[in-house]
Amino acid sequence: MNKNIIAIAIAALGFIIGLGLLGNAIKNRNKSENTISVTGLGTKQFTSDLITWSGSFSKNNVDLKSAYDELAIDRKIINDYLISKGIKQGEIVFSSVDIQKQFRSYNDSNGNYVQGEFSGYNLTQKVSIESKEVAKIENLSRNITEIINRGVEFTSSAPNYFYTKLASVKQEMIAAATKDAKERAEKIAENSGSSLGNLKKATMGVIQITAPNSNEDYSYGGTFNTSSKEKEASITIKLEYQVN
């Protein structure tokens, strides 16, 4: 008899505890659901203030020293030309010389590739410029055929554009995106007859830099366009607020 009473008491106590836990779970669930999550956007357009440009030139000769001497002559022609266009000597950087052995090759009667006898050396060197005089380097890259007309076998690359004050731009965008998100949250709360409570969580997206009015895709790790002088940056901020 006493055992039955004890068992009933234990069961009743367990039932009461269970109701308490369920009530807390429902309360906590409702509390966690009583939030607003919004995403704000911050954008900024700007013009690049730093440009990089490069080109390469090469010489071929069966004698390595002769190839070096001929490449040195071309290097001086290029350097003098750049100086004549107002480029500072400190902005001109020549890379080390890349040396490749060349061989005459052919396909035999069975169609197999055969590397034949040595035919000479190919020496290639790269010249690069980094400058804040964007317009000057742009003009230089467009008129580089003047070097070719001087007998230099020269290949020019497209310029790359950068912005040295990106940190300040990012701060402006974060402020704009945060303001945008908060205004959205306030409007949602107002329309639902509630008021905005404390900020619970803030998550910042990655910065995306593209050419204005382009169809460039955003990437998970962030896009960084270097081919366009004019740029548009954007960033998102996700805010989660408690709703009262």
Written overview of the protein:
It is built from five helices and ten strands. The chain is of the alpha+beta class. It folds into three domains: 30 residues; 93 residues, 2-Layer Sandwich (Translation Initiation Factor IF3); 108 residues, 2-Layer Sandwich (Alpha-Beta Plaits), CATH 3.30.70. The chain is elongated.
What do the pLDDT scores average to? 86
Order of helices and strands: HEEHEEEHHEEHEEE
**Content-based structural category:** alpha+beta
Give start-end ranges of low-pLDDT stretches.
6-32
Total helical elements: 5
Percent of residues in helical segments? Answer: 25-40%
Count up the domains.
3
Radius of gyration in whole Å, from Cα? 34 Å
Taken from the alpha-carbon principal axes, the silhouette is elongated
Fill in the CATH topology of the largest domain: Alpha-Beta Plaits
CATH superfamily of the largest domain: Protein of unknown function (DUF541), domain 2
Strand content: 35-45%
Number of strands: 10
CATH class category name of the largest domain:
Alpha Beta
Distance between the termini: 53 Å
Question: What summary fits the major beta sheet?
Answer: 6 strands, antiparallel
- CATH architecture heading of the largest domain: 2-Layer Sandwich
Quick overview of this protein structure:
It contains five helices and ten strands. The chain has helices spanning 2-33, 64-84, 134-142, 145-148, 166-191; strands spanning 35-47, 50-61, 92-94, 98-107, 113-131, 154-156, 160-162, 196-204, 208-210, 230-243.
